[in-house]
Amino acid sequence: MAVFKEQSPFKTYTGDFTGFLVVVLAVLVVCVSRGKRRRTGTFPPGPPGWPLLGHLPLLGRRPHVKFSEWSREYGPVLGVRLGPRRVVVLNDYESAREALVVRADVFSSRPDLYLMRLFSNGGKGIGLAPYTAKWKAQRRFTDRTLRRLGIGKVTFEGKVMREVDDLVSKISDCHGAAFDPKYHVGVGVVNIVCSLVFGEHFKHDDPLFLKLFNALEDISRYGGSTKHLNIFPALRHVPVLNRGAVRTMAAVSNGRDFISAMIGQHKATFDPSNIRDFIDAYLLAISSEEIEEKRDRFLNEEELRQDIFDLFIAGTESTTATILWSLLLLSVHPEIQRKLQDELDSALGPHQDVSVLDRPYLPYTEATILEVLRFRPTPFGLPHATTADVTLGGFEIPAKTQVLINRWALNMDDRKWSHPDKFDPGRFVDPEGHLDVPVYFRPFLMGRRACIGSHLAKMELLLFLSTILRRFTIKPPEGTPAQSLEGHLGVILQPPSFRICAVPRSTTEN
Q1: Contact yes or no for 213/312 (Cβ under 8 A)
Q2: Residue 278 belongs to domain spanning
Q3: What is the pLDDT of residue 41?
Q4: 3-state DSSP call for residue 229?
């Protein structure tokens, strides 16, 4: 907490720069030597690394792919060094399940990293906080409250469809001309979380809403460029190298200011007999004279502020990226798009809007969404950490070791998937045409840190994608070169910038 509250964690260093680098190198040498002295037992194997920097210079722009390649030689439980820190990377379903489900008590914490302390305001909230009784209380309350507010149920569908309809209207205004869908999808997804948390739907040009949206965009844009500070925190004082961190933390501050203002408004209008949204439910739990469970004593306004911040981070960027990947992939696979549209037309008829209740009748649509999640996943998600010394896959992993789950490797494992580098929704459909999801496919991970927003994300993906494809046929603009599908890794795997044409289906073959 004290770290977050320092007045300027990214002050520019103004002293002797050479002397500063000497100090940094000395600290690194001490960290490495301490790590070596602590080493006991057989740590998971990996390729040779560089002095001081470890494997960082070898990872390139696609570390998820490099880890996957190394795991073929050294095994699925991979040991690497990121600077002075030893890190374990799990690259197959069996080792990931063993850690996150069978050994959940040991593998459910978070590492003590500089940026994670900053983002979590000193270990608060449900996303980045360590695995403690306080975290369990926050997670339990949040899960319970989201269910009560209708997440994943048809009762919440109207709030999602309001944003879907706004998006469809914006697409219609383009009249089939090329446009970039990123902004229009992004504001819709953010507004859905606003409806859940604040009980309010914002106009997309509302200055207050844009303050929040722009803060989340900056966190997404610059957050990936700050990872080096988790490894070498002293670099936050170095000009140029701290630029991304300065922008990111300014965005975090703006986001928190917005959330604090909304909590203040809710406190001024709070009515315990009329619970409007997540903030009201939390305020009721705090103010209740008879707390439902003793463990709820961990609920307080600071935790509420961080919980909301975590819900926005978890519930906006990855969902927006998945919708964008869906549009991009279907635009370059017209045969898959047509098959999906044929299913929607057959199941719903010419006028009926899609609903979450239609899922049983839309196996290929569901399969397409799952294939997008498999083909272009969030490669790592948030890092885990061990709370005690543990053995995994025959190797000894010390307490407080950072653990990464390489979802890219799980989803591209050719022992599990036929032609994994091919985009093919049919892999999730059995010969009788029913949805068939293998047990080893976990797009929202598993265990006690599984994605808390998975039910909302599934609803959003179905309603956004189905409604768009009911109304339009998505195509690349005429004459554009083949679009790269590699993506770029920031906080998540973002699709490249792209433009599409959405042609009203009334002018295409039905």
Answers
A1: no
A2: 2-507
A3: 58
A4: helix
Rounded Cα–Cα distance for residues 15 and 28 (Å): 20
- Give residue-wise pLDDT tens across range 383-397: 999 999 999 999 999
The binding site consists of 451
- CA distances to 104, 311, 416 from 439, in Å: 18, 27, 11
- Per the structure, how many domains does the chain have? 1
Asked whether residue 21 carries a pLDDT value surpassing 90, the answer given is no
Write the DSSP assignment of 237-255 as a string of letters. GSTTTTHHHHHHHHHHHHH
152: left (phi over 0), alpha (psi -120 to 50) or beta: left
DSSP labels, 361-393: G-HHHHHHHHHHHHHS--SS-SPEE-SS-EEET
The token pair at 298 is 């961990």
pTM: 0.89
| Concatenated DSSP letters of 158-192 | HHHHHHHHHHHHHHHTTTT-EE--HHHHHHHHHHH
CA distances from 431 to 138, 188, 365, 422 (A): 44, 37, 16, 19
Bridge partners (DSSP) listed for residue 494: 488
Which pLDDT does position 373 carry in this prediction? Answer: 97
> What's the CATH number where 133 sits?
1.10.630.10
Residue type, 284: L
- pLDDT of res. 296: 56
- What residue numbers does the annotated binding site for heme cover? 451
Separation of alpha carbons 17 and 58, rounded Å: 27
Q: What confidence category does residue 10 fall into, taking pLDDT thresholds of 50, 70 and 90?
A: very low
| Long-range CB contacts for residues 140-147, cutoff 8 Å, separation at least 24 | 140/295, 141/282, 141/285, 141/296, 141/299, 142/307, 142/311, 142/452, 143/452, 145/278, 145/281, 145/282, 146/196, 146/278, 146/452, 146/455, 146/456
For 180, phi then psi, to 5°, come to -95, 115
Q: Which of 111, 133, 345 is nearest to 233 (CA)?
A: 111
Collapsed DSSP state (helix, strand, coil) of residue 86: strand
Distance CA 329, CA 332 (A): 5
Contact 138, 126 (CB under 8 A): yes
Report yes or no: 4 and 129 within 8 Å, Cβ to Cβ.
Answer: no
pLDDT bucket at 270, cuts 50 / 70 / 90: very high
* 415-427 tens-digit pLDDT: 999 999 999 999 9
Token pair, residue 441, equals 């496919």
Question: Each residue of 153-173: b (16+ CB within 10 Å) or e?
Answer: eeebbebbbebbebbbebbee
| Size of the chain, expressed as the number of residues it contains | 510
Burial of 298 (0-12, 13-18, 19+ CB in 10 A): middle
